[in-house]
Structures are given as structure tokens and as C-alpha cells.
Amino acid sequence: MPTRADDSMIQARSLRKSFGSFEAVRGIDVQIHRGESFGFLGPNGAGKSSTMRMIAAVSPVTSGELRILSMDPATHGSQIRGRIGICPQEDTLDNDLSVRDNLIVYGRYFGLSRAAVRSRADELLEFAQLTERAQAKVDNLSGGMKRRLTIARSLINDPELLLLDEPTTGLDPQARHLLWDKLFRLKQQGVTLVLTTHYMDEAEQLCDRLVVMDKGEIVAEGSPLRLIAEHSTREVAELRFGVGEHEDMADRVRDLADRVEVLPDRLLLYTQHGEETLAKVGERGLTPTAVLVRRSTLEDVFLRLTGRSLVD
């Protein structure tokens, strides 16, 4: 990505956020460039949402330096909020209003004229594929429709930067893929995307670059492919044995892989050639109840870096 000073949308240096004696964000450095899709990946409690709230200029920085659109949120919070869009983790739609009126009322907060906000609302309803539900009450929408409406609402002010906190949590696979398509289209239109997620497949699909966070710190940074190449193997062989057998079985196959991880319900054998590794397991007379060979993912990266699964 480019590194010109005028290309930077977000710059954080030694950024910290504390709540009393608890330090949620512990001195992170981040730079996000115009046009990027950037992700904060990590489990619940990693500090992702606290970081996003500081970037959104709704939570003050405890210490360190933060610049959003070249402005300090401590002194230019209202200007920043006028130029960004925010899709919160929880839907905050007005259930008493229609789908279209949710957009219109929200747009008026940004000082848009009635004519401008109505035109913009119609554009966003089409973008979110909700035109036919324009007069429906929010309560009658599916979960996926509500998330599309929330994203549409966050775009009412035509933002340069869109912040999405866990955008697809709780959605079924079809709804998630539809939202991914909408976000990809926004990026193609030049909107800079910053999202938090604990779904490794979502990060791989959407992010040009990301940081992996754990316990308020950044433990890795790079593109999804680069992180997988640096911290994992090409393939992973998963072996399932009987309850309570995995620790013993790990000792019997440890020399067959670059690394072996023991999870409660399976063994993970990190290897460049999964099928060959499975064949060698069979040659030793071991008979797993189930086997699977797959490519490495960001969850494997997180397991390597922190010793636990993303969903722990």
C-alpha cells in the first residue's frame, strides 16, 4: 500500500485505552491508508471494539497519539464524525419507523436537506436491496435485512471512512455472503473500510491488511496470505480420536508434522502435504475416527501466536 502522508486515513501511535485499572488497549501502532479494507481480528475482549470507539471519536484516548482524517478527535470530534460512517455491533434502528424513515431521520442529523436526504435514502435502499421493503416496519425485517439497513444508514452522509464493528455476527451464511458483496462494492467505489471481526473467513475475504489483537496488544500484522505464510504451514491435517486420547496420540505423531496442536476434540498436524502426513499416520497403525485435510487459515495463525482458538 502507498505510504504518502496525505494518503493516511488513520494514524495511531502508542495508543492506549483504560477503564479504571483495566487497560483494554495497550500501546498499539496502526496506520490505515485511503482505499484500504483493514481489519482488527481477535477474540472477544481483545481490545478491538475499544479501538474502534476511539477511531470513531466517541471514546477519548487515554494516552498516545491518534489522528483521523488528519484531525485530532479530542479537538475535532464533530468534524470527524461528520465525515465517517459507523455500523455498530448491535443494531440501533428505530423500530417505530419504517425502513425508509430510518434513513431519512438519520440523514437529517447531518444537516442534509429534505430533498437531498430523500434522494440519498432511495439510492441506499437500492444498494441494500431493500427498496421493496421501504415502507415496512423494522420489526418485520430479517436479521440480514436489519444489518443491511444499518450499513445503509451509516452511508447516509456519503462517508470517506466506514467503521464496521462485527458486521455479520449472528447472521446465517447466505446473509453474511450478501453483506460481504455489499462491502466489496463499497470498497470498489473508494470507501475506506475498517472492520472488527472474530470470523477468520470474513477477515480473509474482506481485508487487504489486518492486525491480530490479543489482550489489548497487536501480535501480528500483514495481509491474510502473508500472515498465513509467516506463521503457519500450507496445509493442516485434523485427526479425531476417542475422548481423552488426543494428548497420548500427539506424542505418537509429533515427528510427522512441523507442529502439532492438541485441542479438546482433535489434533492439528501442521504440514506442507496433508495427504502424505495422513498416510504416514495410517502406516503407524493409528485409526482416527475422523480425518480432514484443509488449507491453513487465520485461526491457525492465532492459535500459533496465542495458544488458543479465535472463538475461545
From TrEMBL:
One of its GO terms (cellular component) is plasma membrane. This is Lipooligosaccharide transport system ATP-binding protein. Belongs to the ABC transporter superfamily. SUPFAM superfamilies: P-loop containing nucleoside triphosphate hydrolases. GO terms for molecular function: ATP binding; ATP hydrolysis activity. SMART domains: AAA. Keywords: Antibiotic resistance, ATP-binding, Cell membrane, Membrane, Nucleotide-binding, Translocase, Transport. It comes from the Bacteria. The keyword Thylakoid does not apply. Residues 10-240 form the ABC transporter domain. It is a peripheral membrane protein. PROSITE patterns: ABC_TRANSPORTER_1, ABC_TRANSPORTER_2. One of its GO terms (biological process) is response to antibiotic. It is found in: Cell membrane.
